[in-house]
Amino acid sequence: MSGIYERLQDETEDNGRGLVPRPTDLPPLNLFEREANNVRNHTVNWQSYVQGQMISQEEFMFIRDYDSCASERLDDLIQANGAQCAKVMIRLIGRIAKEMTVRKILTLIDDMLKEKPERVNIFVEHAKKSKTSPWVPFLNLLNREDKFAVNQASRIVTKLACYGKERMGPSDLRFYFGWMRTQFTTAGNEYVQTVAECLQQLLRLNEYRESFMENEGMSVLMLVLSGKVSFQIQYQLIFCIWMVSFNPMLCSQITKYNIIPVLADILSESVKEKVSRIILAVFRNLIEKPEEKEVKQENALTMIQCKVLKHLEVLEGQKIEDEDITDDIEMLQETLHNSMHDLSSFDEYSSEVKSGRLEWSPVHKSEKFWRENAMRLNEKNYELLKMLIQLLESPDPLVLCVSAHDIGEYVRHYPRGKNVVEQLGGKHLVMQYMGHEDPNVRYEALLAVQKLMVHNWEYLGKQLPVQKDG
C-alpha cells in the first residue's frame, strides 16, 4: 500500500493541517475566491472612521499600518502587536456596519491565519481575557445578510476551532453544524464549495466527527449527493465521509444512511479520477475500519449487490497509473470475491433488501428459500421486514412489485405473519397499490393482499383474474 493512507490517518488523528490536495484535486477559482481577490484589492479609507469617531486614533494607526504593511514585514508587526491585533480587529467588526469594510477586515484575518496557523493563539489569548471562546465573535456573524462576509467568518471559525488547542464545545458545534446544514440544503447557494471546505477541515479532527454524526450531518451529505451536484462538490462531500470513516465506531454506523448504493452510482457515472479515488478510499475504510466482523461482511455484501465489482473491472481496464487507485481496486476485488464465495442465499437476500434495490433475483421466487428463511425476517426486531415495508413507499414500480411479493411470501410461510405485517403498517400500504397504474404492481399487490386476508393461498395465483405483464 502506498503511504497516503498511513499519512492521512496520522494527520487526521493529529491536528489535521497536513492534508495537502494534489494539483489535480484543485478546482478553478469559485465565486468566493474571486470575491476575496476583489476585497484584497479594495482600499479602505480608515481615516474616515476616525473622523466619524467610530474608531480611536490608536485603532486607526494599527489597522492602517497593518493594511499597508508589506507581506515580508507582516510577521514582525503581528509578533510585536499580537494582543492589539486581535483586540482591534474584533472591535472593528463589532462596530463597523459598512459591508465592504467588514469584508476587508474578515479577509485580513482569514489570510493571516491561513498563512501561519499558529497565529490563532493571538485570538485565543484575547478570548481568555474576555472569558469567552475565540470563535464566538465570528459565529455571531453567521446571521448577516452579506453572504461573502458570512462565509469568510465561517472560514475563520473553522481555523480557530481546528488550529488552536481549545476545541469547540457541544453547544457551539450544534449551532455551527446546523448553519452548515442550512447552507448545503439552500437551493442555488453559490458558496457550497466554501462551506464544504470548512467541513473538510473540521472532520480531519476526530473530536468533531462524533458531533457531526450526532447532529444528523451524514443524512444531509447523502441528501446532497443523491441529487445533481458538480464533481467538485461530490469530491468534497465524499472526502468528508472518508474522514468520518476513519473512526471505527462511526464507520460501523454510517452505512445506515445508504452510503454504499449512492457512492456506487456516482462511481459508475464518474469521469473524474479524483472522485473515483475518494470513493474507493471510502469503500476500503468501510471494509477495514469497523471492529465487528459482521459489519465488514455486510458492507462487502452491499457492495456486491450494488455491482461494485463490475465498476472495479471498468476502472481496471482504464490503465490508471495512480497507485492509490490500483491498490484499492486490488484490495476491494479480492475482498469482494472472497465474500461471494461465502455468500449464502439469505446473505444475498439481506444485502439486496438493505441496498433498497430490489429486483427479481432467483431467491424471491424460490419456494425452498422462503420455506427455510421466512422466519429470519423476524430477526433483530423484524429489521428486514420493516425495510421491506418501508420499500413499499418507493417510486420505483419494480421495487414495489418485489417488496409486495416478498411480504406475501413472508405471510405464506410464517403463521403469525399476517398480524405482524398489519401491526407494522404493511397491510395498508400493500392495499393501496391494488389500484396502481402499473399492472405488474397491481398484480403483486392483489396477490399479497389475498395472502394477508385468506387461508387458501395455494390457489390464489390461479384464481386471480389479473394477468401479469411480461
UniProtKB/TrEMBL annotation:
Belongs to the V-ATPase H subunit family. Keywords: Hydrogen ion transport, Ion transport, Transport. One of its GO terms (cellular component) is lysosomal membrane. V-ATPase is a heteromultimeric enzyme made up of two complexes: the ATP-hydrolytic V1 complex and the proton translocation V0 complex. CDD domains: VATPase_H (cd00256). It comes from Holothuria leucospilota (Black long sea cucumber). InterPro entries: ARM-like, ARM-type_fold, ATPase_V1-cplx_hsu, ATPase_V1-cplx_hsu_C, ATPase_V1-cplx_hsu_C_sf. GO terms for molecular function: proton-transporting ATPase activity, rotational mechanism. Gene3D superfamilies: Leucine-rich Repeat Variant, V-type ATPase, subunit H, C-terminal domain. The lineage of its organism: Eukaryota, Metazoa, Echinodermata, Eleutherozoa, Echinozoa. Residues 343-457 form the ATPase V1 complex subunit H C-terminal domain. Subunit of the V1 complex of vacuolar(H+)-ATPase (V-ATPase), a multisubunit enzyme composed of a peripheral complex (V1) that hydrolyzes ATP and a membrane integral complex (V0) that translocates protons. V-ATPase is responsible for acidifying and maintaining the pH of intracellular compartments. It comes from the Eukaryota. This is V-type proton ATPase subunit H.
